Amino acid sequence: MRQALQILLQLRDEGTLAEFAIGGAVATSFYAPAVSTEDLDVFAFLKPSASGLLVLTPLYERLQALGGRVENEYVVIGTWPVHIRPAYTPLVEEAVTHASSQAFEDLTVRVVIADYLCAIALQTGRPKDYLRVQTLIESGHVQSEILSNLVNKFALIQRWETYVRRYG
Amino acid sequence: MSDATVSAPQPGCTQVVNPAEIQAHIEKVKAAWRAHERQMTWEEKVAAIERMWERDAQLARARERLALTLGKERSATK
Lengths: 168, 78
Known about the structure:
The complex is a heterodimer of chains A (168) and B (78). With 168 residues, chain A is of the alpha+beta class. Chain A is built from eight helices and seven strands. Chain A has two domains: 1-112, Beta Polymerase, domain 2 (2-Layer Sandwich), CATH 3.30.460.40; 113-168, no CATH class. Chain A has helices at 2-14, 24-31, 57-65, 90-97, 114-124, 127-139, 144-153, 157-167, and strands spanning 17-23, 40-46, 69-71, 74-77, 80-86, 100-104, 107-111. A five-stranded mixed sheet of chain A has the order 1-2-5-4-3. In chain A, strands 6-7 form a two-stranded antiparallel ribbon. Chain B is flat, with a radius of gyration of 21 Å. Chain B has helices at residues 19-39, 42-77. Chain B contains two helices and no strands. Chain A binds chain B through residues 1, 25-26, 29-30, 33-38, 79, 102-105, and chain B through 37, 40, 42-43, 45-46, 48-50, 52-53, 56.
């Protein structure tokens, strides 16, 4: 994992990635017990091209030049399949902006905070995402005031009610 | 949770365990594990995720072997 994080940090320092934050199960595992996952989810702000469009090609080319191997939607760096997702919704954009810096070995990476991980899981809305909400809440890292603001702001009330019906 | 029914002690079985003792032991072990997990660093948890990959791969290989064996047995009985 260190190798993947190091290359992502290099991409950010070079400017290929404007900013990124770790999300998904690996971020959840920062706050809660380890969650089984096959990939490292990375939410990223991409550098716009000259035409103003956000394109993944320069990023993938640079990753391959640094030893990454493209497999379907992943770039495998070292042993980790990395799924780079452009910050694709206002919620994810805000999650990247509000991510907190955390140490992984000798590196410092930004990790989506637990409240935003909950909100993103609600927005995604698969059964495993509702389970993730519960795991995060049980971890004690979710602040009710922040989560309720996110639920209201991003119109997640129905998803929250579904979660409460299943796990409440 | 298992839905297995517990039958009466078998003939010759003289010792009977108190279910409450088993319950207390399980709760103690679970609490100890939760406390252990809370103390794990992020790096340790990531290492645990990586170990899950090997376990999952072993399970997949075992399932493939079992499917092959069952397939051969079915072919032999036809």
